[in-house]
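S1.2 Input.
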Amino acid sequence: MTNDLRTRITDDLKEAMKAKDAARLGTLRLINAAIKDQDIALRVDGKSVGEAEILAILGKMVKQRQESARAYEEGGRLELAERELAEVKVISDFLPAQLSEAQTEAAVDAAITDVGAESIRDMGKVMGVLKGKYTGQMDFGSVGPMVKARLG
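S1.3 Output.
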Protein backbone atom coordinates (compact mmCIF):
# COMPACT_ATOMS: atom_id res chain seq x y z
CA MET A 1 0.00 0.00 0.00
CA THR A 2 2.94 2.32 0.69
CA ASN A 3 3.99 2.04 -2.91
CA ASP A 4 0.59 3.28 -4.07
CA LEU A 5 0.98 6.72 -2.51
CA ARG A 6 4.68 6.97 -3.31
CA THR A 7 3.96 5.92 -6.89
CA ARG A 8 1.18 8.50 -7.22
CA ILE A 9 3.50 11.25 -5.96
CA THR A 10 6.31 10.17 -8.30
CA ASP A 11 3.94 9.91 -11.28
CA ASP A 12 2.49 13.36 -10.55
CA LEU A 13 6.03 14.74 -10.28
CA LYS A 14 6.85 13.37 -13.73
CA GLU A 15 3.61 14.79 -15.15
CA ALA A 16 4.36 18.21 -13.64
CA MET A 17 7.82 18.11 -15.26
CA LYS A 18 6.33 17.27 -18.65
CA ALA A 19 3.68 19.97 -18.29
CA LYS A 20 6.31 22.46 -17.09
CA ASP A 21 4.06 23.28 -14.12
CA ALA A 22 6.72 24.89 -11.93
CA ALA A 23 4.49 25.58 -8.90
CA ARG A 24 3.14 22.02 -8.71
CA LEU A 25 6.58 20.56 -9.41
CA GLY A 26 8.12 22.53 -6.55
CA THR A 27 5.48 21.34 -4.09
CA LEU A 28 5.82 17.72 -5.21
CA ARG A 29 9.58 17.94 -4.75
CA LEU A 30 9.02 19.24 -1.21
CA ILE A 31 6.75 16.27 -0.50
CA ASN A 32 9.35 13.84 -1.85
CA ALA A 33 12.09 15.49 0.20
CA ALA A 34 10.03 15.27 3.41
CA ILE A 35 9.35 11.57 2.79
CA LYS A 36 13.02 10.86 2.01
CA ASP A 37 14.11 12.71 5.16
CA GLN A 38 11.85 10.45 7.21
CA ASP A 39 13.14 7.38 5.31
CA ILE A 40 16.70 8.35 6.21
CA ALA A 41 15.78 8.86 9.85
CA LEU A 42 14.15 5.42 10.00
CA ARG A 43 16.91 3.65 8.06
CA VAL A 44 18.95 3.35 11.27
CA ASP A 45 16.31 0.93 12.58
CA GLY A 46 16.05 -0.86 9.23
CA LYS A 47 12.56 0.56 8.60
CA SER A 48 11.05 2.72 5.89
CA VAL A 49 8.15 5.14 5.82
CA GLY A 50 4.76 3.45 5.48
CA GLU A 51 1.44 4.73 4.19
CA ALA A 52 0.32 6.05 7.60
CA GLU A 53 3.59 7.94 8.06
CA ILE A 54 3.31 9.49 4.59
CA LEU A 55 -0.22 10.64 5.41
CA ALA A 56 1.03 12.10 8.69
CA ILE A 57 3.84 13.94 6.85
CA LEU A 58 1.36 15.33 4.33
CA GLY A 59 -1.04 16.38 7.09
CA LYS A 60 1.76 18.17 8.90
CA MET A 61 2.80 19.93 5.68
CA VAL A 62 -0.77 21.14 5.12
CA LYS A 63 -1.03 22.44 8.67
CA GLN A 64 2.32 24.28 8.39
CA ARG A 65 1.26 25.95 5.16
CA GLN A 66 -2.12 26.98 6.53
CA GLU A 67 -0.43 28.58 9.52
CA SER A 68 2.07 30.35 7.25
CA ALA A 69 -0.72 31.59 4.98
CA ARG A 70 -2.58 32.98 7.99
CA ALA A 71 0.57 34.76 9.19
CA TYR A 72 1.21 36.19 5.70
CA GLU A 73 -2.39 37.42 5.46
CA GLU A 74 -2.11 39.12 8.84
CA GLY A 75 1.11 40.74 7.66
CA GLY A 76 -0.48 41.97 4.43
CA ARG A 77 1.64 39.64 2.24
CA LEU A 78 -1.23 38.26 0.18
CA GLU A 79 0.93 36.96 -2.70
CA LEU A 80 2.88 34.77 -0.27
CA ALA A 81 -0.33 33.61 1.39
CA GLU A 82 -1.73 32.62 -2.02
CA ARG A 83 1.42 30.61 -2.78
CA GLU A 84 1.12 28.74 0.53
CA LEU A 85 -2.56 27.99 -0.14
CA ALA A 86 -1.70 26.76 -3.65
CA GLU A 87 0.76 24.32 -2.06
CA VAL A 88 -1.98 23.19 0.34
CA LYS A 89 -4.15 22.31 -2.67
CA VAL A 90 -1.39 20.20 -4.25
CA ILE A 91 -0.61 18.38 -0.99
CA SER A 92 -4.31 17.82 -0.25
CA ASP A 93 -4.66 15.90 -3.52
CA PHE A 94 -2.83 13.03 -1.83
CA LEU A 95 -4.79 13.09 1.42
CA PRO A 96 -8.03 11.18 1.92
CA ALA A 97 -11.21 13.23 2.21
CA GLN A 98 -11.61 14.94 5.58
CA LEU A 99 -14.36 13.65 7.82
CA SER A 100 -17.26 15.98 8.51
CA GLU A 101 -17.86 17.12 12.08
CA ALA A 102 -20.68 14.58 12.47
CA GLN A 103 -18.48 11.77 11.10
CA THR A 104 -15.65 12.82 13.42
CA GLU A 105 -17.98 12.76 16.44
CA ALA A 106 -19.26 9.32 15.43
CA ALA A 107 -15.67 8.06 15.02
CA VAL A 108 -14.73 9.41 18.46
CA ASP A 109 -17.78 7.76 20.05
CA ALA A 110 -17.00 4.46 18.31
CA ALA A 111 -13.36 4.58 19.43
CA ILE A 112 -14.40 5.24 23.04
CA THR A 113 -16.75 2.25 22.88
CA ASP A 114 -14.15 0.00 21.18
CA VAL A 115 -11.54 0.74 23.83
CA GLY A 116 -14.03 0.66 26.68
CA ALA A 117 -12.77 4.06 27.80
CA GLU A 118 -14.29 5.27 31.06
CA SER A 119 -12.07 8.11 32.21
CA ILE A 120 -9.53 10.65 31.04
CA ARG A 121 -6.82 8.07 31.75
CA ASP A 122 -8.02 6.15 28.69
CA MET A 123 -7.57 9.13 26.37
CA GLY A 124 -4.27 7.81 24.96
CA LYS A 125 -5.89 4.53 23.97
CA VAL A 126 -8.76 6.33 22.24
CA MET A 127 -6.41 8.67 20.38
CA GLY A 128 -4.29 5.67 19.35
CA VAL A 129 -7.31 3.96 17.79
CA LEU A 130 -8.34 7.16 16.01
CA LYS A 131 -4.84 7.78 14.66
CA GLY A 132 -4.65 4.20 13.45
CA LYS A 133 -7.92 4.41 11.54
CA TYR A 134 -8.20 8.06 10.52
CA THR A 135 -4.71 9.45 9.90
CA GLY A 136 -5.04 12.24 7.35
CA GLN A 137 -8.82 12.31 7.64
CA MET A 138 -9.24 14.37 10.79
CA ASP A 139 -7.45 17.15 12.65
CA PHE A 140 -6.21 15.51 15.83
CA GLY A 141 -5.62 18.94 17.38
CA SER A 142 -9.36 19.49 17.51
CA VAL A 143 -10.21 15.83 18.17
CA GLY A 144 -8.16 15.74 21.40
CA PRO A 145 -10.37 18.25 23.23
CA MET A 146 -13.47 16.43 21.90
CA VAL A 147 -12.25 13.13 23.36
CA LYS A 148 -11.30 14.86 26.61
CA ALA A 149 -14.78 16.42 26.92
CA ARG A 150 -16.47 13.04 26.42
CA LEU A 151 -14.25 11.29 28.95
CA GLY A 152 -14.00 14.09 31.51
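S1.4 Remarks. Residues 51-74 form the longest helix (24 residues).
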